[in-house]
Amino acid sequence: MKTVLAQRPNLPVRTAVESLWLQEEQPLMLFRCRVGHAFAADSLQATQSEAVESALWAAMRALEEDASLARRLAGMSEQRQQKEMFDRYEERAREKTEQAAILRNLILEAQKVPQER
Prior knowledge:
This protein is α+β, with helices and mostly antiparallel strands. 59% of the residues lie in helices and 12% in strands. It is elongated, with a radius of gyration of 22 Å.
């Protein structure tokens, strides 16, 4: 077993939250964290893809929540007859809603694309 310390990719591990070390073991290439978790290249890629998708969904939800807050603030501004604030919050709500929709469509389209092997 040959451990290559010079090639240390800075990849987060969801289980150990550490950097991974590349270990070249015949016939597999393994990535291992300091705790000892080991990932074959395909399983590491799948784990990273799941983490990215999860982060994208969280970002989309945050945009939707921001849009919702902006709509509520716009409504409160309208009741108080604060036209400039109303316009600002309405614009923010539109922007965040549009950004969330773009992100949602991107995520859903990416799910339709077959994974390369």
